[in-house]
Amino acid sequence: MSRRLTFLFLLCAVCVPAVMADIVYENINSPFFNSAIQPRRALDDGFFYQNPGDFSLPILVDQAAFGFQVTGTDVASLDVKLTFYGGMNPAADPVNSNPLGSFVVPFTNISPGAVMTSLMPLPSAILFPGNSWGVEFEFLEPGTNTLSTRGTVLFAGSDPNGPTVGWSEDTYWRDANLDALYSPVEARWFGDGSNRANFYLQLNGRMVDPIPEPATLALLGFGVLPMLRRRK
């Protein structure tokens, strides 16, 4: 009986997709700095883990924390919209990337300077099918799609080895002419040439294993046959 229960436990463990909540991307290290050109719409590339080859499973992101800069000298109200893209190649035109999902966070009467949010749940989880992705920040007038002049992206710096988990190619795109497009001439460097950085951002999610193939389940079944025979 105990052997049969052990088998059932193992079978359930294999059949149920493996789920693990974790920090899947983290670039919230100090020092941080804002963009000197104050882009109201900007796009950055990213990878899960330092080596893109280390990641092969889809990830379901359901929490995020981020930072941005409030410009000017008085309090401001604005909406911050984050849009995520999949299949982004940092060396290619980012317009070719596929949108995965977006969410908007409203801010009211916030003081000028750097703003860092706490970890917040997303309105709906976003599935990242691969390790290469991008994130776009848009700073909007409250309740509209009009770009606000009061917000700009915030970068997190690090040593030349890169942040703990995420890393970038030291470049990002900003919509300099506000035409809602990113062109190669709008690519810019982060900080200085020796400092890797990207947008101040943390993503929490679940790395999901697919259900095992039938061949895997068949092998498990063959392994339990001797147990059943001994039981008889």
Descriptive report:
31% of the residues are buried. The chain contains two helices and 14 strands. The chain has helices at 2-15, 214-231; strands at residues 21-27, 32-34, 41-47, 59-70, 76-86, 98-110, 113-116, 120-128, 132-140, 151-156, 171-174, 187-189, 198-199, 201-207. The chain is mostly beta strands and 232 residues long. The longest helix is centred in the C-terminal third of the chain and has 18 residues, at 214-231. It folds into two domains: 1-17 and 211-226; 18-208, Jelly Rolls, CATH 2.60.120.
List strands and helices in order, with pairings.
Elements: H1 2-15, E1 21-27, E2 32-34, E3 41-47, E4 59-70, E5 76-86, E6 98-110, E7 113-116, E8 120-128, E9 132-140, E10 151-156, E11 171-174, E12 187-189, E13 198-199, E14 201-207, H2 214-231
Antiparallel strand pairs: 1-14, 2-10, 3-9, 3-11, 4-7, 4-8, 4-10, 4-14, 5-6, 5-9, 10-13, 11-12
Helix pairs in contact: 1-2
Q: Characterize the main sheet.
A: 8 strands, antiparallel
| Uncertain residue ranges | 4-20
- Class based on secondary structure composition and strand pairing: mainly beta
Distance between the termini: 12 Å
Look at the structure and give the mean pLDDT.
75
Assigned CATH architecture of the largest domain: Sandwich
Share of β-strand residues: 35-45%
CATH class of the largest domain: Mainly Beta
Task: Using the coordinates shown, work out and report the CATH topology of the largest domain.
Answer: Jelly Rolls
